[in-house]
Specification:
mainly alpha; Amino acid/polyamine transporter I; 77% helix; globular; binds 4-fluoro-L-phenylalanine
Amino acid sequence: MSVDRGSWSSKFGFILAAAGSAVGLGNIWKFPYITGENGGGVFVLIYLVSVAIVGIPIMISEVVIGRASQKSPVGAFSFLAGENSSWKFVGMLGVASGFIILSYYSVVAGWALNYTFMSLTNFFDGKTAEQISGTFNTLYSSAGINLFWHSVFMILTAAVVVAGVKKGIERWNRILMPILILMFIIFAVFSIFLSGWKEAVEFVFYPHIDKLKPSGVLEALGHAFFTLSLGMGAMLTYGSYLDKKTNIPQAAIYVSLLDTAVALLACMVMFPVIFTYGFNPQAGPGLVFQTFPVIFGEIGRAGMLLSFILFTLLVFAALSSAVSLLEVVTSYFIDEKGWDRKKATLITAGAVFLFGIPSALSGTGLLFPEWQTMYGKNFFDTFDYLASNWMLPLGGLFISIYVGWAMDPALRKAEFETGGNFSKSWYYKTWLFFLKFIAPLAVIAVILQRVGIIDFDILF
Ligand code: PFF
């Protein structure tokens, strides 16, 4: 039962695909609005520190496990730690996280598809801010429209994954990632000419320490996991398709820098607009969907084109991330159950679609209307909360503990150093220090805060 697992054609192919996984709705939709909610600069600073001291060390670890085992998450842990080892459950947790995240991620991506389509019909032209935010609310509460775009997005995702590692995932990322980065640079340059640009730069980059909220520190750390696609084995799976020549630490640093660059560019496109037009930076999750079309609507035909480009990019970014989420689930069935790629993709994508239906209907009150009363959050928010705040940080914690404390040290060192010029051993030692101590302690702090055992707001 030897199935050809596929591989990247080059280091560049891997970096683009991994960056494609990292850059997604997390950067363009979520990061700007949580930056707005958490007071700007100081939040951005803490997020950057989290990426550097927790994100990068864990990303290197995931790729190390993936390449050392040449397997997807469950198989990787059985292979490295032994068939009957409990580490296998970390892989299982990853597969479950991928399944859950994709189910609601596809719904938000569906909104972006809907807005792309609305841009084409020049819908926003001449509409008032109220009409435009009303449109978002109509979309949110419409069963048919949500289900339609959710299914379109899942079909697109499955179509890329079914084509395989090189022909599907890598090929699409090679096309989409450079366009995305280029377009955001162009948008960010345009926004320099807006009158609110200076205020935006000050808001995003100047850390006002008095705005520091300890819960914001924890939110920044949690977001670092989501945005870098860590804690569920996505980077592990992509690492399993990586050749033995590529230098892992260097690739992980490039991917993290690209991801961070897109998040900051998204802020530098959005905040100048927000300050120029006097919007509230704390507008929340509706920021992209409710704010941008207002501007586009004011500038007529050119606005229609810009709006189309912006939402198309959002769809692209979401697609390359969704592909990595589905790949984790699909590759489990390919590697562990011996299914062929087509069967594995179709069945898993179908199951994710079905599980996403209640999320797609969350704003309609049609399915499980009593869910909110029972659990305090609607179906969509419950699973987002569960996956982002629990499953990813826990997965990341176990991965850092496994690689830091349990993995064969010789294999770990060899994977870290292959393909690089590591005459200086402090690179390896520094990574190990962050992996063994800093990353697990930081994640444990997040979890204790979430459980409510420690309230950092009171401690400070
Ligand atoms: N990193 C993606 C984003 O920022 O939108 C989301 C994501 C993809 C999370 C893949 C986790 C993952 F494994």
